[in-house]
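Quick one, T. Sequence first:
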Amino acid sequence: MNKIILLGYMGSGKSTIAELLAKKINIPFKDLDDMIEKEENATINTIFKQKGELYFRKLEHTILRQLTASTQHFVLSLGGGTPCYANNHLLIESEGIISIYLKASIEELDRRLSAEKDKRPLIASLDAEERRSFIAKHLFERSFFYNKATKTIDVTHKTVAQLVSEIETFLI
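Structure tokens:
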């Protein structure tokens, strides 16, 4: 079994799918944002506010580098921006890693994120039109990095169980 890394935009289902997949194939689940919060004993929002994005991105890169260099097998959920900074996409392309881009349309992401916008500080204050524009802009900026993944799966109109099964088919 390899290291399996799920990437994609916020709301694409990375953490939920990674956790279920890890249980199903019986290897550890890791969430990069959770690891950063544990390391700093602070939420991602607090880290951004108190220490800035540059500090956060350096820490994110350091932990990702340690994970990709380890001999441990796992399913890892990345933060939405992780592949786009500090040449992290090169770490994700390392030997022994299967990366999976969970791709969703702007409309699907907007639908999912609008339901939980209060938990998402980047979009909490945006109205519906601003939110869709924000998502579209980010997807455009990040698509180069997301599309470097080993596999791409469209998550639109699929259940978590369906997506886990789909991922399992190309892990065999």
